[in-house]
Design a protein that fits this description.
Elements (H helix, E strand, L loop, with lengths): L1 H26 L4 H18 L9 H14 L6 H13 L17 H8 L9 E5 L2 E6 L12 E5 L2 E2 H9 L11 H18 L4 E8 L2 E8 L5 H11 L3 H5 L2 E2 L4 E2 L1 E5 L6 E6 L7 H15 L3 E5 L8 H9 L12 E2 L17 H20 L1 E3 L5 E3 L17 E6 L6 H11 L4 E4 L9 E10 L6 E9 L16 E2 L4 H5 L4 H19 L1
Helix pairs in contact: 2-3, 6-7, 11-13
InterPro entries: ClpP/crotonase-like_dom_sf, Tail-specific_protease
GO cellular component, one term: outer membrane-bounded periplasmic space
GO molecular function, one term: serine-type peptidase activity
Length: about 525
Protein backbone atom coordinates (compact mmCIF):
# COMPACT_ATOMS: atom_id res chain seq x y z
CA UNK A 1 0.00 0.00 0.00
CA UNK A 2 2.84 2.37 0.86
CA UNK A 3 4.46 1.61 -2.50
CA UNK A 4 1.12 2.21 -4.28
CA UNK A 5 0.62 5.60 -2.59
CA UNK A 6 4.22 6.57 -3.34
CA UNK A 7 3.71 5.64 -7.00
CA UNK A 8 0.52 7.74 -7.24
CA UNK A 9 2.27 10.73 -5.67
CA UNK A 10 5.23 10.32 -8.03
CA UNK A 11 2.93 10.14 -11.07
CA UNK A 12 0.96 13.18 -9.86
CA UNK A 13 4.17 15.16 -9.34
CA UNK A 14 5.46 14.09 -12.76
CA UNK A 15 2.16 15.18 -14.36
CA UNK A 16 2.29 18.64 -12.70
CA UNK A 17 5.94 19.01 -13.62
CA UNK A 18 5.14 18.00 -17.22
CA UNK A 19 2.42 20.68 -17.49
CA UNK A 20 4.76 23.32 -16.06
CA UNK A 21 7.60 22.30 -18.37
CA UNK A 22 5.31 22.32 -21.43
CA UNK A 23 3.95 25.80 -20.65
CA UNK A 24 7.45 27.18 -20.14
CA UNK A 25 8.58 25.69 -23.44
CA UNK A 26 5.46 27.08 -25.17
CA UNK A 27 6.46 30.62 -24.18
CA UNK A 28 10.16 30.26 -24.91
CA UNK A 29 11.78 31.70 -28.04
CA UNK A 30 13.10 29.27 -30.65
CA UNK A 31 15.95 30.36 -32.91
CA UNK A 32 15.33 30.88 -36.66
CA UNK A 33 17.79 28.07 -37.50
CA UNK A 34 15.87 25.57 -35.39
CA UNK A 35 12.52 26.75 -36.77
CA UNK A 36 13.79 26.24 -40.32
CA UNK A 37 14.82 22.73 -39.27
CA UNK A 38 11.24 22.16 -38.12
CA UNK A 39 9.95 23.30 -41.51
CA UNK A 40 12.22 20.76 -43.21
CA UNK A 41 11.14 18.05 -40.73
CA UNK A 42 7.46 18.80 -41.46
CA UNK A 43 7.84 18.58 -45.21
CA UNK A 44 9.98 15.45 -45.01
CA UNK A 45 7.39 13.62 -42.87
CA UNK A 46 4.52 14.70 -45.13
CA UNK A 47 6.32 13.38 -48.21
CA UNK A 48 7.16 10.16 -46.40
CA UNK A 49 3.72 9.34 -45.00
CA UNK A 50 0.91 11.23 -46.77
CA UNK A 51 -0.50 8.96 -49.51
CA UNK A 52 -1.69 11.75 -51.85
CA UNK A 53 0.22 14.89 -50.93
CA UNK A 54 0.02 16.49 -54.37
CA UNK A 55 -3.67 15.84 -55.01
CA UNK A 56 -4.57 19.52 -55.05
CA UNK A 57 -1.18 21.22 -55.31
CA UNK A 58 1.80 20.36 -57.50
CA UNK A 59 5.12 19.36 -55.94
CA UNK A 60 6.79 22.35 -57.58
CA UNK A 61 4.29 24.76 -56.04
CA UNK A 62 4.49 23.11 -52.63
CA UNK A 63 8.31 23.11 -52.70
CA UNK A 64 8.17 26.83 -53.39
CA UNK A 65 5.81 27.51 -50.46
CA UNK A 66 7.97 25.62 -47.96
CA UNK A 67 11.15 27.26 -49.29
CA UNK A 68 9.53 30.71 -49.11
CA UNK A 69 8.51 30.09 -45.50
CA UNK A 70 12.06 29.14 -44.54
CA UNK A 71 13.41 32.33 -46.13
CA UNK A 72 10.81 34.43 -44.27
CA UNK A 73 11.82 33.08 -40.84
CA UNK A 74 14.59 35.48 -39.78
CA UNK A 75 13.98 36.01 -36.08
CA UNK A 76 13.23 33.89 -32.98
CA UNK A 77 9.57 32.96 -32.46
CA UNK A 78 7.56 31.24 -29.76
CA UNK A 79 5.93 27.92 -30.79
CA UNK A 80 2.54 29.67 -31.00
CA UNK A 81 3.93 32.40 -33.26
CA UNK A 82 5.62 29.73 -35.39
CA UNK A 83 2.31 27.84 -35.65
CA UNK A 84 0.71 30.89 -37.25
CA UNK A 85 3.51 30.89 -39.86
CA UNK A 86 3.61 27.17 -40.69
CA UNK A 87 -0.06 26.18 -40.55
CA UNK A 88 -1.13 28.51 -43.43
CA UNK A 89 1.39 26.69 -45.66
CA UNK A 90 0.06 23.29 -44.60
CA UNK A 91 -3.50 24.45 -45.29
CA UNK A 92 -2.47 25.09 -48.93
CA UNK A 93 -2.22 21.30 -49.35
CA UNK A 94 -6.02 21.51 -49.17
CA UNK A 95 -6.55 18.42 -47.05
CA UNK A 96 -9.09 19.23 -44.34
CA UNK A 97 -7.82 16.51 -42.01
CA UNK A 98 -4.24 17.74 -42.18
CA UNK A 99 -3.42 20.32 -39.55
CA UNK A 100 -0.88 21.10 -36.86
CA UNK A 101 -2.16 21.05 -33.30
CA UNK A 102 -2.09 24.60 -32.02
CA UNK A 103 0.23 24.79 -28.95
CA UNK A 104 -2.37 25.98 -26.46
CA UNK A 105 -1.66 26.38 -22.76
CA UNK A 106 -2.10 23.25 -20.64
CA UNK A 107 -3.77 23.42 -17.25
CA UNK A 108 -3.00 21.80 -13.94
CA UNK A 109 -5.64 19.69 -12.18
CA UNK A 110 -6.25 22.57 -9.79
CA UNK A 111 -6.85 25.02 -12.66
CA UNK A 112 -9.13 22.56 -14.47
CA UNK A 113 -11.18 22.06 -11.29
CA UNK A 114 -11.58 25.84 -10.89
CA UNK A 115 -12.67 26.28 -14.50
CA UNK A 116 -15.24 23.47 -14.22
CA UNK A 117 -17.22 25.60 -11.78
CA UNK A 118 -17.27 28.59 -14.11
CA UNK A 119 -19.30 29.32 -17.22
CA UNK A 120 -17.79 30.02 -20.61
CA UNK A 121 -17.06 33.56 -21.69
CA UNK A 122 -17.83 33.19 -25.40
CA UNK A 123 -18.92 29.56 -25.47
CA UNK A 124 -22.44 30.25 -24.22
CA UNK A 125 -23.49 31.72 -27.56
CA UNK A 126 -24.11 30.21 -30.99
CA UNK A 127 -22.50 31.95 -33.98
CA UNK A 128 -22.68 32.19 -37.75
CA UNK A 129 -20.00 33.38 -40.18
CA UNK A 130 -20.69 35.25 -43.42
CA UNK A 131 -17.52 36.34 -45.23
CA UNK A 132 -15.67 38.53 -42.68
CA UNK A 133 -18.64 38.93 -40.34
CA UNK A 134 -19.40 36.98 -37.18
CA UNK A 135 -23.00 37.02 -35.93
CA UNK A 136 -24.64 35.90 -32.71
CA UNK A 137 -27.52 33.63 -33.67
CA UNK A 138 -28.48 32.26 -30.26
CA UNK A 139 -28.25 33.58 -26.70
CA UNK A 140 -30.14 31.12 -24.49
CA UNK A 141 -29.16 32.87 -21.24
CA UNK A 142 -29.98 36.36 -22.55
CA UNK A 143 -26.47 37.53 -21.65
CA UNK A 144 -26.26 41.35 -21.85
CA UNK A 145 -29.51 41.16 -23.84
CA UNK A 146 -27.55 40.43 -27.03
CA UNK A 147 -30.15 39.68 -29.69
CA UNK A 148 -29.85 37.06 -32.46
CA UNK A 149 -28.55 38.78 -35.59
CA UNK A 150 -26.16 41.03 -33.65
CA UNK A 151 -22.73 41.28 -35.27
CA UNK A 152 -19.61 40.98 -33.12
CA UNK A 153 -17.36 43.78 -34.38
CA UNK A 154 -14.38 43.69 -32.03
CA UNK A 155 -12.91 42.02 -28.94
CA UNK A 156 -10.77 44.15 -26.63
CA UNK A 157 -10.31 46.70 -29.40
CA UNK A 158 -9.21 44.23 -32.11
CA UNK A 159 -11.42 43.84 -35.18
CA UNK A 160 -13.17 40.46 -35.47
CA UNK A 161 -12.87 40.77 -39.26
CA UNK A 162 -9.07 40.74 -38.83
CA UNK A 163 -9.27 37.64 -36.65
CA UNK A 164 -11.51 35.91 -39.21
CA UNK A 165 -9.06 36.64 -42.04
CA UNK A 166 -6.16 35.37 -39.93
CA UNK A 167 -7.91 32.20 -38.77
CA UNK A 168 -9.35 31.52 -42.21
CA UNK A 169 -5.80 30.86 -43.44
CA UNK A 170 -5.33 28.14 -40.80
CA UNK A 171 -8.06 25.81 -42.08
CA UNK A 172 -8.88 24.16 -45.36
CA UNK A 173 -11.57 21.99 -46.85
CA UNK A 174 -10.80 18.99 -49.02
CA UNK A 175 -9.98 20.50 -52.41
CA UNK A 176 -11.32 23.73 -53.80
CA UNK A 177 -14.83 23.88 -52.35
CA UNK A 178 -15.46 26.96 -50.23
CA UNK A 179 -18.63 25.93 -48.38
CA UNK A 180 -16.74 24.34 -45.47
CA UNK A 181 -15.13 27.51 -44.13
CA UNK A 182 -18.08 29.39 -42.59
CA UNK A 183 -19.32 26.29 -40.75
CA UNK A 184 -15.97 25.17 -39.39
CA UNK A 185 -14.69 28.67 -38.69
CA UNK A 186 -17.64 29.52 -36.44
CA UNK A 187 -16.90 26.38 -34.41
CA UNK A 188 -13.14 26.85 -34.06
CA UNK A 189 -12.92 30.66 -33.95
CA UNK A 190 -12.73 30.87 -30.16
CA UNK A 191 -10.42 27.84 -29.96
CA UNK A 192 -7.88 29.83 -31.98
CA UNK A 193 -8.65 33.01 -30.03
CA UNK A 194 -8.16 31.29 -26.65
CA UNK A 195 -4.96 29.56 -27.77
CA UNK A 196 -3.63 32.94 -28.85
CA UNK A 197 -4.92 35.15 -26.01
CA UNK A 198 -5.41 32.69 -23.16
CA UNK A 199 -8.53 32.08 -21.07
CA UNK A 200 -9.97 35.47 -20.19
CA UNK A 201 -12.17 36.30 -17.21
CA UNK A 202 -13.67 39.27 -19.04
CA UNK A 203 -13.67 40.92 -22.44
CA UNK A 204 -14.82 44.25 -23.83
CA UNK A 205 -16.77 43.73 -27.04
CA UNK A 206 -18.27 46.04 -29.63
CA UNK A 207 -21.49 44.93 -31.33
CA UNK A 208 -23.76 46.12 -34.12
CA UNK A 209 -27.50 45.54 -34.21
CA UNK A 210 -29.93 47.35 -36.53
CA UNK A 211 -27.30 50.00 -37.36
CA UNK A 212 -26.66 50.72 -33.67
CA UNK A 213 -23.21 50.10 -32.19
CA UNK A 214 -22.84 49.17 -28.56
CA UNK A 215 -19.89 48.48 -26.23
CA UNK A 216 -20.42 45.72 -23.68
CA UNK A 217 -18.33 43.83 -21.14
CA UNK A 218 -18.69 40.05 -20.94
CA UNK A 219 -17.67 38.44 -17.65
CA UNK A 220 -16.97 34.82 -16.77
CA UNK A 221 -19.60 33.88 -14.18
CA UNK A 222 -19.55 31.12 -11.58
CA UNK A 223 -22.06 28.29 -11.85
CA UNK A 224 -24.69 28.10 -9.12
CA UNK A 225 -25.55 24.90 -7.23
CA UNK A 226 -28.55 24.15 -9.44
CA UNK A 227 -26.43 24.35 -12.60
CA UNK A 228 -23.70 22.14 -11.09
CA UNK A 229 -26.29 19.53 -10.04
CA UNK A 230 -27.88 19.62 -13.50
CA UNK A 231 -24.47 18.95 -15.07
CA UNK A 232 -24.01 15.92 -12.81
CA UNK A 233 -27.41 14.57 -13.85
CA UNK A 234 -26.67 15.24 -17.53
CA UNK A 235 -23.50 13.16 -17.32
CA UNK A 236 -25.39 10.08 -16.13
CA UNK A 237 -25.76 7.69 -19.06
CA UNK A 238 -29.37 6.51 -19.28
CA UNK A 239 -30.48 3.95 -21.90
CA UNK A 240 -31.91 6.78 -24.05
CA UNK A 241 -28.72 8.84 -23.77
CA UNK A 242 -26.60 5.88 -24.81
CA UNK A 243 -28.81 5.00 -27.77
CA UNK A 244 -28.97 8.56 -29.11
CA UNK A 245 -25.36 9.36 -28.10
CA UNK A 246 -25.99 12.22 -25.68
CA UNK A 247 -23.38 15.01 -25.49
CA UNK A 248 -23.49 16.61 -22.03
CA UNK A 249 -21.41 19.68 -23.00
CA UNK A 250 -24.04 20.79 -25.53
CA UNK A 251 -27.12 19.19 -23.90
CA UNK A 252 -27.96 17.56 -27.22
CA UNK A 253 -27.97 14.20 -28.96
CA UNK A 254 -25.73 13.11 -31.82
CA UNK A 255 -28.61 11.05 -33.19
CA UNK A 256 -32.34 11.72 -33.27
CA UNK A 257 -35.19 9.83 -34.87
CA UNK A 258 -38.85 10.75 -35.19
CA UNK A 259 -41.77 10.94 -37.63
CA UNK A 260 -42.65 14.33 -39.10
CA UNK A 261 -46.36 13.66 -39.64
CA UNK A 262 -49.26 12.09 -37.74
CA UNK A 263 -49.58 9.06 -40.01
CA UNK A 264 -45.81 8.34 -39.84
CA UNK A 265 -45.43 8.62 -43.62
CA UNK A 266 -42.26 10.70 -43.28
CA UNK A 267 -39.42 9.39 -41.11
CA UNK A 268 -36.69 11.83 -40.09
CA UNK A 269 -33.19 10.96 -38.90
CA UNK A 270 -30.75 13.64 -37.71
CA UNK A 271 -27.13 12.50 -37.31
CA UNK A 272 -24.71 15.16 -36.00
CA UNK A 273 -21.67 12.89 -35.88
CA UNK A 274 -20.84 9.33 -36.92
CA UNK A 275 -19.38 8.37 -33.53
CA UNK A 276 -20.22 4.63 -33.83
CA UNK A 277 -21.27 4.61 -30.14
CA UNK A 278 -24.41 2.42 -29.93
CA UNK A 279 -24.97 3.04 -33.66
CA UNK A 280 -25.89 -0.61 -34.40
CA UNK A 281 -28.74 -0.52 -31.93
CA UNK A 282 -29.90 2.95 -33.01
CA UNK A 283 -30.22 2.02 -36.69
CA UNK A 284 -31.72 -1.39 -35.94
CA UNK A 285 -34.47 0.12 -33.77
CA UNK A 286 -35.07 3.13 -36.04
CA UNK A 287 -35.45 1.13 -39.25
CA UNK A 288 -37.64 -1.41 -37.47
CA UNK A 289 -39.97 1.49 -36.52
CA UNK A 290 -39.93 2.74 -40.12
CA UNK A 291 -40.84 -0.72 -41.40
CA UNK A 292 -43.64 -1.21 -38.84
CA UNK A 293 -45.05 2.23 -39.68
CA UNK A 294 -44.84 1.46 -43.43
CA UNK A 295 -43.32 4.89 -44.04
CA UNK A 296 -42.98 5.97 -47.66
CA UNK A 297 -40.34 8.65 -47.18
CA UNK A 298 -37.12 8.97 -45.21
CA UNK A 299 -35.16 12.18 -44.62
CA UNK A 300 -31.58 11.79 -43.38
CA UNK A 301 -30.06 15.02 -42.10
CA UNK A 302 -26.24 15.08 -42.03
CA UNK A 303 -25.79 18.85 -42.21
CA UNK A 304 -22.86 20.07 -40.09
CA UNK A 305 -21.81 16.46 -39.52
CA UNK A 306 -18.00 16.53 -39.61
CA UNK A 307 -17.80 12.75 -40.09
CA UNK A 308 -16.37 10.00 -37.95
CA UNK A 309 -16.68 6.24 -38.23
CA UNK A 310 -16.54 4.41 -41.58
CA UNK A 311 -18.10 1.46 -39.77
CA UNK A 312 -21.18 3.53 -38.92
CA UNK A 313 -21.75 4.90 -42.43
CA UNK A 314 -21.36 1.37 -43.78
CA UNK A 315 -24.05 0.27 -41.32
CA UNK A 316 -26.33 3.13 -42.36
CA UNK A 317 -25.81 2.37 -46.05
CA UNK A 318 -26.77 -1.27 -45.46
CA UNK A 319 -30.26 -0.02 -44.44
CA UNK A 320 -30.60 1.94 -47.70
CA UNK A 321 -29.01 -0.36 -50.29
CA UNK A 322 -31.26 -2.45 -52.57
CA UNK A 323 -28.48 -4.97 -53.23
CA UNK A 324 -24.98 -5.92 -51.95
CA UNK A 325 -22.57 -3.00 -52.13
CA UNK A 326 -18.95 -2.00 -51.53
CA UNK A 327 -18.74 1.35 -49.74
CA UNK A 328 -15.11 2.36 -50.40
CA UNK A 329 -12.30 1.43 -52.72
CA UNK A 330 -9.14 -0.29 -51.37
CA UNK A 331 -7.38 2.17 -49.04
CA UNK A 332 -3.93 3.18 -50.25
CA UNK A 333 -0.81 3.67 -48.08
CA UNK A 334 2.60 5.12 -48.92
CA UNK A 335 4.30 1.88 -47.83
CA UNK A 336 3.74 -1.51 -46.19
CA UNK A 337 5.14 -0.22 -42.88
CA UNK A 338 2.91 2.88 -42.64
CA UNK A 339 0.46 1.28 -40.15
CA UNK A 340 3.37 0.70 -37.76
CA UNK A 341 4.08 4.45 -37.62
CA UNK A 342 0.96 5.30 -35.62
CA UNK A 343 2.85 6.04 -32.38
CA UNK A 344 1.43 3.05 -30.54
CA UNK A 345 2.85 4.13 -27.16
CA UNK A 346 1.86 7.79 -27.53
CA UNK A 347 0.64 9.53 -24.34
CA UNK A 348 0.82 6.30 -22.33
CA UNK A 349 1.12 6.38 -18.55
CA UNK A 350 3.71 4.01 -17.04
CA UNK A 351 0.93 1.47 -16.32
CA UNK A 352 -0.54 1.79 -19.84
CA UNK A 353 2.95 1.47 -21.31
CA UNK A 354 3.40 -1.84 -19.49
CA UNK A 355 0.12 -3.29 -20.78
CA UNK A 356 0.73 -1.97 -24.30
CA UNK A 357 4.20 -3.54 -24.31
CA UNK A 358 2.65 -6.94 -23.55
CA UNK A 359 0.03 -6.44 -26.29
CA UNK A 360 2.44 -5.06 -28.89
CA UNK A 361 3.24 -8.40 -30.63
CA UNK A 362 -0.48 -8.88 -31.35
CA UNK A 363 -0.80 -5.30 -32.58
CA UNK A 364 2.27 -5.72 -34.79
CA UNK A 365 0.99 -8.88 -36.47
CA UNK A 366 -2.55 -7.47 -36.87
CA UNK A 367 -1.29 -4.35 -38.63
CA UNK A 368 1.20 -6.29 -40.75
CA UNK A 369 -1.35 -8.91 -41.88
CA UNK A 370 -3.83 -6.20 -42.88
CA UNK A 371 -1.44 -4.69 -45.44
CA UNK A 372 -1.19 -6.20 -48.92
CA UNK A 373 0.44 -5.28 -52.19
CA UNK A 374 -1.89 -4.66 -55.13
CA UNK A 375 -1.31 -5.68 -58.73
CA UNK A 376 -0.25 -2.07 -59.34
CA UNK A 377 2.58 -2.50 -56.81
CA UNK A 378 0.91 -0.11 -54.34
CA UNK A 379 0.41 -0.94 -50.63
CA UNK A 380 -3.23 -1.20 -49.47
CA UNK A 381 -4.89 -1.70 -46.10
CA UNK A 382 -7.65 -4.28 -45.58
CA UNK A 383 -10.88 -2.85 -44.20
CA UNK A 384 -14.36 -4.26 -43.79
CA UNK A 385 -15.77 -1.28 -45.67
CA UNK A 386 -13.92 -2.17 -48.91
CA UNK A 387 -15.55 -5.59 -48.98
CA UNK A 388 -19.07 -6.48 -50.10
CA UNK A 389 -21.84 -5.81 -47.56
CA UNK A 390 -25.34 -7.27 -47.75
CA UNK A 391 -28.40 -5.06 -47.25
CA UNK A 392 -30.17 -5.41 -43.90
CA UNK A 393 -33.44 -7.28 -43.65
CA UNK A 394 -35.23 -4.06 -42.67
CA UNK A 395 -33.58 -2.02 -45.44
CA UNK A 396 -35.77 0.93 -46.45
CA UNK A 397 -37.18 0.69 -49.97
CA UNK A 398 -39.03 4.01 -50.16
CA UNK A 399 -37.90 7.45 -51.30
CA UNK A 400 -34.88 8.92 -49.50
CA UNK A 401 -33.81 12.56 -49.20
CA UNK A 402 -30.45 13.49 -47.67
CA UNK A 403 -29.76 16.99 -46.34
CA UNK A 404 -26.17 18.19 -46.77
CA UNK A 405 -24.27 21.47 -46.44
CA UNK A 406 -20.74 22.84 -46.17
CA UNK A 407 -20.44 21.33 -42.69
CA UNK A 408 -20.89 17.81 -44.10
CA UNK A 409 -17.32 16.58 -44.05
CA UNK A 410 -15.18 13.42 -44.13
CA UNK A 411 -17.41 10.34 -43.59
CA UNK A 412 -20.49 12.48 -44.34
CA UNK A 413 -19.06 13.29 -47.78
CA UNK A 414 -18.06 9.65 -48.38
CA UNK A 415 -21.60 8.37 -47.84
CA UNK A 416 -23.16 11.32 -49.74
CA UNK A 417 -20.89 10.69 -52.72
CA UNK A 418 -21.68 6.97 -52.75
CA UNK A 419 -25.44 7.53 -52.41
CA UNK A 420 -25.42 10.07 -55.23
CA UNK A 421 -23.38 7.83 -57.53
CA UNK A 422 -25.75 4.90 -56.90
CA UNK A 423 -28.74 7.20 -57.55
CA UNK A 424 -30.29 5.97 -54.31
CA UNK A 425 -31.27 9.36 -52.85
CA UNK A 426 -32.04 12.97 -53.65
CA UNK A 427 -29.41 15.25 -52.11
CA UNK A 428 -30.72 18.64 -50.96
CA UNK A 429 -28.83 21.67 -49.62
CA UNK A 430 -25.30 22.89 -50.32
CA UNK A 431 -22.08 21.41 -51.68
CA UNK A 432 -20.35 19.38 -48.97
CA UNK A 433 -17.18 20.57 -47.24
CA UNK A 434 -15.52 17.20 -47.83
CA UNK A 435 -14.44 16.14 -51.33
CA UNK A 436 -16.61 14.09 -53.67
CA UNK A 437 -13.70 11.76 -54.57
CA UNK A 438 -12.45 10.97 -51.06
CA UNK A 439 -10.00 12.15 -48.46
CA UNK A 440 -6.86 11.21 -46.54
CA UNK A 441 -7.51 10.17 -42.95
CA UNK A 442 -8.14 6.70 -41.47
CA UNK A 443 -5.54 6.36 -38.74
CA UNK A 444 -2.73 8.82 -37.98
CA UNK A 445 0.97 9.07 -37.34
CA UNK A 446 1.51 11.68 -34.62
CA UNK A 447 4.76 13.47 -35.28
CA UNK A 448 6.27 16.10 -32.97
CA UNK A 449 8.34 18.88 -34.50
CA UNK A 450 11.75 18.51 -32.76
CA UNK A 451 12.37 22.13 -31.76
CA UNK A 452 9.01 23.89 -31.45
CA UNK A 453 7.43 20.68 -30.02
CA UNK A 454 4.26 21.19 -32.05
CA UNK A 455 2.22 18.04 -32.81
CA UNK A 456 1.60 17.12 -36.45
CA UNK A 457 -0.94 14.31 -37.01
CA UNK A 458 -0.64 12.86 -40.54
CA UNK A 459 -3.41 10.72 -42.02
CA UNK A 460 -2.02 7.48 -43.44
CA UNK A 461 -4.95 6.15 -45.51
CA UNK A 462 -6.38 7.37 -48.80
CA UNK A 463 -10.10 6.73 -48.30
CA UNK A 464 -12.26 7.02 -51.43
CA UNK A 465 -15.90 6.09 -52.09
CA UNK A 466 -16.52 3.21 -54.49
CA UNK A 467 -17.64 5.40 -57.41
CA UNK A 468 -16.46 6.65 -60.79
CA UNK A 469 -14.50 9.74 -59.79
CA UNK A 470 -15.59 13.18 -60.98
CA UNK A 471 -12.07 14.74 -60.71
CA UNK A 472 -13.72 18.09 -59.96
CA UNK A 473 -11.53 18.60 -56.85
CA UNK A 474 -14.65 19.86 -55.12
CA UNK A 475 -17.36 18.60 -52.77
CA UNK A 476 -20.46 16.51 -53.35
CA UNK A 477 -22.88 18.72 -55.28
CA UNK A 478 -26.55 18.39 -54.23
CA UNK A 479 -29.25 17.40 -56.72
CA UNK A 480 -31.28 20.35 -55.47
CA UNK A 481 -29.22 23.35 -54.33
CA UNK A 482 -30.82 25.49 -51.63
CA UNK A 483 -28.84 27.92 -49.48
CA UNK A 484 -29.83 28.91 -45.97
CA UNK A 485 -29.20 32.56 -45.09
CA UNK A 486 -28.32 34.02 -41.71
CA UNK A 487 -31.83 35.45 -41.33
CA UNK A 488 -33.34 32.01 -41.97
CA UNK A 489 -31.16 30.63 -39.17
CA UNK A 490 -32.10 33.45 -36.77
CA UNK A 491 -35.79 32.94 -37.55
CA UNK A 492 -35.31 29.15 -37.15
CA UNK A 493 -36.67 28.76 -40.65
CA UNK A 494 -35.32 25.55 -42.23
CA UNK A 495 -35.78 26.34 -45.92
CA UNK A 496 -33.98 23.16 -47.01
CA UNK A 497 -36.11 20.79 -44.93
CA UNK A 498 -39.23 22.80 -45.82
CA UNK A 499 -38.50 22.27 -49.53
CA UNK A 500 -38.40 18.48 -49.02
CA UNK A 501 -41.64 18.52 -47.05
CA UNK A 502 -43.34 20.53 -49.80
CA UNK A 503 -42.09 18.09 -52.48
CA UNK A 504 -43.43 15.15 -50.50
CA UNK A 505 -46.80 16.85 -50.08
CA UNK A 506 -46.95 17.45 -53.85
CA UNK A 507 -46.21 13.79 -54.53
CA UNK A 508 -48.78 12.63 -52.00
CA UNK A 509 -51.39 14.96 -53.53
CA UNK A 510 -50.69 13.57 -57.01
CA UNK A 511 -51.13 10.01 -55.74
CA UNK A 512 -54.44 10.98 -54.08
CA UNK A 513 -55.86 12.61 -57.24
CA UNK A 514 -54.93 9.54 -59.30
Amino acid sequence: MKYFIFTLLALSFASCNSVKKYNEQRLSMVSPEKLRDDVDFTYQKLQEMHPNLNWYISKKELDFKFDSLKMAINKPLTPTEFYFKLQPVISQIREGHLSLKIPAKRFSKKEIKALKNKKGLFGRFEYHVVDDHLYFIENKDSIQNIKPGTELLSINGVSVADYLKKYRELISSDGYNSTFYPYYLKDVFFNFFTAEKGILDSAKIETLYEDKKQTLVLKRESKNKTEIEKEKIDKKRTAEKKLNDYVASTSSYNRNFNFLDKDSTIAYMKIKSFTRTFSDKFYKESFAKIKNAESSYLIIDIRENYGGSLYEINQLYSYLAPEPFVLIKPSQLTSRVSPLKTNYFRKSSPLQYTFKSLAYPGYFFYQTLNVYKGKDGVAYYKMKENKSTKPKQDAFKGKVYVLINGGSFSASSIISSKLKFDKRVTLVGEETGGANDGTVAGFYSYQMLPNSKIDLPIGLLLVQPNIDFTHTKKGVVPDVEISQGVQDIIDKKDVQLDWIKAEIEKEKSLKTTK
